[in-house]
């Protein structure tokens, strides 16, 4: 009996050590990925990098990023990774489709087989997507966008994958907000410079 207990304890300890090693690897990868995206100042390049890094993080082949257009109160798909070209530029309202439901729920959502999901909208009826994970980009509880990741297998995502994608989305949301602010500031400076130049003529 003592040997059995010892063996069970040893097995549990080994499993815990493997879990901790896996968690450490994930955190290291997440940290490196966050450094990479935060080093990008150009908004367009940043958005592309976010989708690519999110796919790499979960080893998922396809991804897309939606951004809220506050002036229209609409979500727009701005970047796709290995997705159909005609998806880009599509707009939906909060509550519509998967990304729209994530905006309303303000939490990750999983669809085990998106192709047969009844709430698809517009251009996405011809989707290659099966299992799909969508996570919100949140800044102070405000959803500014949604990252959608999918592959062509039916199934779900592990809790650890959802957690990792959510942590990455938090970092990405901050990077997007900073880049948007910088782009807005640069535009205002350019406009003001033009106004001054015209006034001095």
> Taking strands numbered 1, 2, ... along the chain, how are they ordered across the largest sheet?
3-2-1-6-5-4
- The dominant shape is globular
Mean pLDDT, to the nearest integer, reads 84
Structural class: alpha+beta
Which runs of at least 5 residues are low in confidence (pLDDT < 50)?
Answer: 1-5
Percent of sequence in beta strands: 15-25%
Radius of gyration: 21 Å
Total strands:
6
Helix residue percentage: 40-55%
Largest sheet: 6 strands, antiparallel
Distance between the termini: 95 Å
Q: What order do the helices and strands follow?
A: HHEEEHEEEH
Please describe what this structure looks like.
By secondary structure, the protein is α+β, with helices and mostly antiparallel strands. The chain contains four helices and six strands. The protein has helices at residues 2-38, 43-58, 97-105, 159-200; strands at residues 62-69, 74-81, 91-92, 109-111, 132-139, 142-150. The protein has a six-stranded antiparallel beta sheet with strand order 3-2-1-6-5-4, with helices on both faces. Helix 1 (2-38) packs antiparallel against helix 2 (43-58) and helix 2 (43-58) packs antiparallel against helix 4. It is globular and about 80 Å long. Mean pLDDT is 84; it is low at 1-5.
């Amino acid at each position: 009996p003592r040997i059995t207990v010892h063996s069970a304890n040893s097995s549990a300890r080994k499993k815990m050590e493997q879990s901790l090693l896996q968690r450490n690897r994930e955190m290291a990868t997440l940290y490196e990925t966050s450094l990479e995206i935060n080093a990008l100042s150009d908004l367009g390049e940043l958005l592309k990098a976010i989708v690519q890094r999110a796919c790499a993080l979960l080893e998922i082949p396809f991804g897309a990023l939606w951004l809220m257009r506050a002036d229209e109160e609409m979500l727009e798909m701005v970047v796709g990774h290995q997705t159909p070209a005609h998806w880009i530029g599509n707009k939906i309202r909060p509550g519509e489709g998967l990304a729209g439901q994530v905006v309303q729920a303000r939490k990750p959502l999983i669809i085990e087989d998106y192709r047969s999901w009844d709430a698809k909208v517009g251009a996405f009826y011809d989707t290659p997507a099966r299992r799909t994970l969508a996570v919100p980009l949140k800044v102070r509880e405000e959803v500014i966008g949604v990252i959608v990741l999918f592959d062509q297998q039916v199934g779900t995502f592990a809790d650890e994958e959802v957690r990792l994608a959510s942590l990455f989305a938090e970092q990405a949301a901050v990077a997007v907000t900073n880049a948007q602010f910088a782009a807005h500031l640069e535009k205002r400076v350019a406009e003001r410079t033009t106004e001054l130049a015209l006034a001095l003529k």
